[in-house]
TrEMBL record:
Residues annotated as the enzyme's active site: 150
Lineage: Eukaryota, Viridiplantae, Chlorophyta, core chlorophytes, Trebouxiophyceae
Keywords, sorted A to Z: ATP-binding, Kinase, Nucleotide-binding, Serine/threonine-protein kinase, Transferase
Sequence segments annotated as region (Disordered): 1-23, 336-369
Residue numbers binding ATP: 59, 105-107, 154-155, 170
Record's compositionally biased regions (Low complexity): 336-352
Protein name, UniProt field: Protein kinase domain-containing protein
Cross-link Glycyl lysine isopeptide (Lys-Gly) (interchain with G-Cter in SUMO2) per UniProt, renumbered positions: 152
Gene3D superfamilies according to UniProt: Phosphorylase Kinase, domain 1, Transferase(Phosphotransferase) domain 1
InterPro entries: Aur-like (IPR030616), Kinase-like_dom_sf (IPR011009), Prot_kinase_dom (IPR000719)
Residue ranges of coiled coil: none
Protein kinase domain span: 30-295
Amino acid sequence: MELDVPPLPDGSGSPNPQGDADLLAGNPRYEKIRYLNRGAFGFVVLAHDKQCNDRVALKFIERGPEHINKYVEREIVNHMKLRHPHIIGLREVFLTSTHLVLSMEYAPGGDLFRYVAARRGLPEDEARWFFQQLMIAVDYCHRMGVSSRDIKLENTLVDGSPRPLIKLADFGFSKDANQHSAPTSRVGTPAYLAPEVITNQPGQVYDGKKGDIWSCGVLLYILVTDRYPFRRPGDDAMKPNQKLNVMLQRILRADYSFPADKPLSDGVRDLISRILVQDPDARPTLQGIFTHPWFVEGLNPAALQFNDSIVRESLANQPSPEVLNEVRAIVQEAAKPVAAPAAPQTAPQQPAIPRPDESNRGAYDSLDELVRGAAAESDSFDMR
Ligand SMILES: Nc1ncnc2c1ncn2[C@@H]1O[C@H](COP(=O)(O)OP(=O)(O)O)[C@@H](O)[C@H]1O
Ligand SMILES: [Mg+2]
């Protein structure tokens, strides 16, 4: 298997240093069922929502200025605007004594990374089925003004249907073109980063939508090959920094090939090779992808009009300014230094100093720093 799969959570383990027992202590609405997984910024727990008598996924983000920054607010505000069958629903946001919590629709199939790794890549027909859904989700986001900037298998969730439906998740790096200026930050996950995002310099802007399309091309390549396009088998012998550096250099050259031992149709090769080109303007638009012969196979033509009415409906039902203000107030509260536990103190307590640049959404000024700072190529991070 080419994809490195972290050990499956055993259902009881938790990265929460306080232990999970009191994560939801005293919460009248939610009851923990089990730990699901963690991402670069939070861990996710399956819980029972007593109010709706339904299962939900709760994403826990630690409180305090070192964890809560502008990306957390954007994640919530942008996610709240998106209501679509192929986007995980965000239900509510609340605080516990230690965490900011996002209550989300639960995807029982887990994420597409594990799904694909367990099957060692997907047959093309199945890959197409997932990719069609993902493109419809991305088209909706882009029409709503939101670019994800972190599209990857780990952020694409699978529901529990016999013919699985996918649900795009994790808007932790998203950008709303209507709310914020054009993207300038080098954020995302190294293996999926577009060349222009890697080379972006302070003061320059790039088109987040075209960067998303590149990431979708990387994702499609992985679906059908069970490999990362810009990694080579020999890379594993390298030190992590060198491994990341050679991968980024290959991305900049769009230097990849199709594995000789995987039979792939000309159609999927053609689509991937049109997307993974250095010049963002030379990549197909979503409309271009929607009319590609490999993409349209087996697709009900009505599916391409699917988003028209959903976009109309979403635009007519955006969260009210009051709701948005309420959410911002919760995030601001979460960003305050967490009260120290009541313990006898021998020395006067130092006030906590906000150090957003040292948060776990770390900042990087150069490619070199990026290489030194990256934890793993498949982890998300911020490279401003
Ligand atoms: N709604 C959900 N249903 C099921 N699993 C989920 C859900 N949300 C997240 N997960 C799991 O938790 C992981 C981390 O969640 P994510 O929102 O991506 O956090 P991060 O911002 O830390 O990357 C995902 O890759 C997925 O495996
Ligand atoms: Mg994630």
